[in-house]
Amino acid sequence: GSPGCASCGLPAMERDKEESLMIEFAKQQLLDKLHLKERPNITQTVPRAALLIALRKLHSGRVGQDGTLEVANSRPIPTNDQGYEIVSFADLSETEIGDTASLSLTFQFLQEHGQSIQVLQSSLWIYARSSEDRHRDSRLSARVFLSAEGGLSGSNRTLVMEKMLEVQESGWHTFPITRTLQAFLDGGQRRLQLEVSCDEDGKNLCSLDGSDTPNQPFLVAQVRLRDDHSKHTLRKR
Amino acid sequence: SLRCGDDVSVCCKRDFYIKFKDIQWHDWIIAPEGYHMNYCMGQCPQHLAGSPGIASSFHATVFSQLKVNGINTAASSCCVPTERRPLSMVYFNSQHSIVKTDVPDMIVESCGCT
Question: Does A93 contact B at CB distance below 8 Å?
């Protein structure tokens, strides 16, 4: 172990006692830096394939079909503000399964008191199956609705955005929801409920074909923590 | 910057690496695999004060003012980090979302005497 600390008077320690102290110190330091009170308990596992797809999208920097640049390459966050990139999977226990079902997604968010989140950019990633009817127009209108918290599927919802999808081939599509997510978080709510409709003759090409599909819908957001107290401090310019 | 060996005398950087698997944290931390919680230790005798480079710390500023003004005090120079870098982390939070963030100034790269 190390010699005693001449200035603080700590006695010399055995090496393994010192090491376990250092490990506890490291754990506490990491939790503090991540603004976590304790280590998260992972109770529901995300299929590894879905995890890899989401992480790949987070870092792909790919230009979306609507020409917007995905979150990964948006404006860099100034280094003195701790920024986060978040990938959130929908709570599938509340999502209906089946090709005629509407795709209703619930995302959980938890905000610490005294802190507010600034959303720099956010998008919803949805996987749409290809149209089975090869002879019809390969473009399909997709709509994203915001459901009132706790509302039933289809009731009391507002249209967030609508866009045309190319469904010649199955594939991923992004729906920018930056303002929607910012308004949701500013409202202090916890459960963001979205409904996605890609209706083709009664079939929803965006619905899930199974709960363990690797093509699970997910939400990507680039956020920055705003410390509410800092709002009241005057800064020297 | 010196790297500490077994016998520590002069200011140096002690490497200390924690593997998340060893502390059962690898289920919620996706990357990296571990954390280099290096730290500085060792003595800074008077003739080493301010070497091997000026340590960027409040203590260094005060100490150099004392020296410039020829004020002899009992204060001694300290062994502190002179270079640090961020730790990039990807982890699950309590809502099972994946979070990626760069935590600034988490890894000590080198040490020096104030």
Answer: no
User: What ipTM score was computed for the predicted complex, to two decimals?
Assistant: 0.78
Phi, psi of A74 (to 5 degrees): -75, -165
CA angle B86, B92, B96 (to 5 degrees): 155
DSSP state of B43: B
Closest-CA distance, B113 to chain A, in angstroms, reads 16
Nearest-CA neighbor of A212 among A99, A95, A130, A128?
Answer: A95
- Band (A116; pLDDT cuts 50, 70, 90): confident
Other C-beta atoms closer than 10 Å to the C-beta of A48 total 9
Q: Could you report the per-residue pLDDT of B43-94, keeping only the tens digit for each?
A: 887 766 665 555 555 666 666 676 677 766 666 678 889 899 999 999 988 8
What stretch of H or E contains A222? Answer: strand A218-227
Please tell me if residue A103 touches chain B, with a CB cutoff of 8 Å: no
CA max distance for chain B? 59
For residue B38, the cross-strand partners are none
Count of positions (residues) in chain A: 237
Nearest to A171 by CA among A89, A57, A88: A57
- From A3, A42, A58, residue closest to B27, measured CB to CB: A42
Q: Please report the DSSP string for B11-61 in residue order.
A: SEEEP-EEETTTTT-TTTEEE-SEEE--EEESB--GGGTT-SS---SHHHH
**Cα–Cα distance measured from residue A128 to residue A91, given in angstroms and rounded to the nearest whole number:** 19
For residue B22, the model assigns a pLDDT of: 94
In angstroms, the CA A206 to CA A200 distance is 10
State the DSSP string of A117-145.
EEEEEEEEEEEEPPPS-TTS-SEEEEEEE
Amino acid at A96: E
Report the alpha-carbon distance of residue A128 to residue A203 in Å, rounded. 11
